[in-house]
Automatic annotation (TrEMBL), chain B:
SUPFAM superfamilies assigned: P-loop containing nucleoside triphosphate hydrolases
Protein name in UniProt: ABC transporter ATP-binding protein
NCBIfam families found in the cross-reference section: oligo_HPY (TIGR01727)
Keyword Isomerase: no
BP GO terms, sorted: peptide transport
Record key words, sorted: ATP-binding, Nucleotide-binding, Transport
Domain ABC transporter: 5-256
One annotated GO molecular function: ATP binding
Statement: the UniProt record of this protein carries the keyword ATP-binding: yes
């Protein structure tokens, strides 16, 4: 599929967190990340914990402000959004779905009331009948039955069902973009595929663009059109989703080799150095993956690699 | 072969305001010396309650029936009959637990060495001696003594879980129970932790392992034998090869099908997951508990409870499809 129109674009987005009360320490969570999400595209953002993937989601959803760099929605800088009214306009186009569905809903309110809140906040309906019609449509879209879910409390659902309901809640406003931050990592393995299928349906039936954030290679391969591989706040590889089974970057290869497969047991010993407690020396401007990389050279430790193009992918590595 | 642990018809219930939750409802299995037994089940199937009732049930969970027999040189101890003090003395030495939430397993405001001091005090051992042993264990899990001076918050999830493995195996426990030890970890750390568990068993630092998870692909990697649990009951058991290559129970089949093979894209082929949700354990359905979601269910499945039948040696299934209709 040809994706031309950039609906969301990140330009050199950087986020530094300062920690510590007296001795100020700063953590570079996102380091000059640039990418775009095309219209009607599912873009997979793949990374382990600490890669900065959730920080990026929060920057797009305006929960955090970037330290530097820009997020453009349809060419407009979202940092220029001022006031509740403009923010509401933005959120009626860009919606988030989060990892833990149980903390996305107020446990003491019925699903219907939570949905009514959203409809009221965004002024989507004038009458109760209109509101109900919007809810019926959203709930049906995620494959649930309105009558069966609407008068229940969050604890009466399984994780998978509740995650569908949080997708339905995001759909109420009729968004163009859904930012789904690890939407399946807390639901049972047997129901993950169907949640992803729901997101795929949104793309195919309504042209909604999805930024899908996750760490599971097979699931990301399955549901994404394009993927971006993040490590320690940097993009290391970017390309069509098929790069996940034909990795170019040694980091992507490390992830690929760690996937547990049902067909076979892990065979050879892993070649990658285990992660060690962070030391103070981490400040050298080489490749961020160099300390764990099995094929690193002196150059990798000293100089930051540039992006090179290989088989339709962009790879940030000296050895490609 | 003699079992090391024998769980017999165990029933463990929660008494709640709404009624009795039958989390573990007639579970029997054996754990043999030197094996890694995988227990697979989705959230709410009772697998963590099973672990708790083996290790140390805490109210509102109560063992209402059955026994947990620990064998040792011809002697047998029924854990369910012990008072909590004796039972506590078994923890760490005979049975050790690696829990799911790595965040909660270590106190956040104390350094790792303080935790080790507590253990020395509890087990009435010399701290310096214990420290030497701990450092040896740390090396085994690819960490060094610098961990002692750290607060758990300073360690990543994978490092924290490896630290807990080192702590849990200090006294060469007979049985290591790992309850979703890697579910909260990244792919790479997950592989490391699972391979470490296997290595600890191979090096006989731990006797046997019970590995509990919802992820059948990871069970495939390290388990020798597998139990499939659903809604408080065991549906199927057998060697890991048998379970993966020739699953008998429809539920096991769906579990295996729900693991996407790497390389499949939605643009080529739609995969399908399991529809519906597991039953409430307050009022489980009569008959087979999987019947409401089972694509092969027939009238009998909805009415009559299914017995466990042995299809060949060491292979057991609980499904009317394999019995006379």
């Amino acid at each position: 599929m040809k994706v031309s129109e950039k609906i969301l674009e990140l330009r050199e987005v950087t986020k530094v967190f300062r920690t510590g009360l007296l001795r100020g320490r700063s953590v570079l969570a996102v380091d000059k990340v640039s990418f775009h999400l095309g219209r009607g595209e599912i873009l997979g953002l793949l990374g382990e914990s600490g890669s900065g993937k959730s920080t990026i989601a929060k920057i797009i959803l305006k929960i955090y402000e970037p330290t530097s760099g820009k997020v453009l929605y349809r060419g407009r800088d979202v940092s220029e959004i001022r006031g509740w009214k403009e923010l509401k306009q933005y959120y009626s186009k860009v919606q988030g779905v989060f990892q833990d569905p149980f903390s996305s809903f107020n446990p003491r309110r019925m699903i219907r009331d939570t949905f009514y809140d959203t409809i009221r906040n965004f002024g989507l309906a004038r009458t109760k009948e209109e509101a109900d019609a919007i809810i019926v449509k959203a709930v049906n879209t995620v494959g649930l039955n309105y009558e069966e879910v609407i008068n229940k409390y969050p604890h009466e659902f399984s994780g998978g069902q509740l995650q569908r309901l949080s997708i339905a809640r995001a759909l109420l406003v009729n968004p163009e973009v859904i930012v789904a931050d690890e939407p399946v990592s807390m639901v049972d393995a047997s129901t993950r595929i169907d949640i992803l299928n729901t997101l795929i349906d949104l793309k195919q039936n309504f042209g909604i663009s999805v930024l899908l954030i996750g760490h599971d290679l097979s699931l990301m391969r399955y549901a994404s059109d394009r993927v971006i591989v993040l490590y320690k706040g940097q993009v290391l590889e970017e390309g069509p989703a098929s790069i996940l089974e034909k990795p170019n970057h040694p980091y992507t290869r490390m992830l690929y080799e760690a996937v547990p497969r049902i067909e076979e047991k892990w065979s050879e010993k892993p070649r990658y150095a285990p992660e060690l407690p962070a030391s103070a020396s981490a400040g050298a401007r080489g490749c961020v993956f160099a300390d764990r990389c099995p094929i690193r050279t002196e150059r990798c430790l000293a100089e930051e690699p540039p992006f090179v193009t290989k088989d339709g992918a962009r790879v940030k590595c000296w050895r490609v | 072969m003699k079992p090391l642990l024998e769980v017999k018809n165990l029933r463990a219930y929660y008494r709640t305001f709404f009624g009795v939750v039958r989390a573990v409802d007639g579970v029997s299995f054996e754990l043999y010396r030197g094996e890694i037994l995988g227990i697979i089940g989705e959230s709410g199937c009772g697998k963590s309650s099973l672990v708790q009732s083996i290790v140390m049930p805490k109210p509102p969970l109560r063992v209402v029936e059955g026994s947990v027999l620990l064998h040792e040189n011809g002697r047998v101890v029924d854990l369910t009959r012990l008072d909590s003090r004796t039972r506590r003395s078994f923890l760490g030495t005979r049975i050790s637990l690696v829990p799911q939430y790595v965040m909660d397993a270590l106190p956040t405001v104390r350094r790792v060495r303080d935790v080790l001091r507590d253990i020395a005090r509890e087990k009435k051992l010399d701290y310096e001696e214990l420290k030497k042993l701990f450092v040896r264990r740390l090396r085994g899990v690819n960490l060094d003594e610098s961990v002692l001076e750290r607060y758990p918050l300073e360690l990543s999830g994978g490092m924290r879980q490896r630290t807990i493995l080192a702590l849990a195996t200090l006294f060469n426990p007979d049985i290591l129970i790992a309850d979703e030890p890697a579910s909260a970890l990244d792919l790479v750390s997950q592989r490391q932790v699972l391979e470490l568990i296997r290595q600890l068993r191979d090096e006989k630092i731990v006797g046997s392992v019970i590995y509990i998870t919802h992820d059948i692909a990871s069970v495939r990697q390290i388990a020798d034998r597998v139990l499939v649990m659903y809604a408080g009951k065991i549906l199927e058991s057998g060697s890991v090869e048998d379970i993966v290559n020739e699953p008998l129970h429809p539920y096991t089949k769906v579990l295996i099908k729900s693991v996407p093979p790497l390389g499949v894209s939605y643009t080529e082929r739609r995969l399908e997951g399991l529809k519906g949700a597991p039953p409430s354990l307050l009022s489980p359905p009569p008959g087979c508990r999987f019947a409401p979601r089972c694509p092969y269910a027939f009238a009998r499945c909805m009415k009559e409870e299914t017995p466990l039948v042995e299809t060949k040696e060491g292979r057991v299934v609980s499904c009317w499809l394999y019995l006379e209709r």
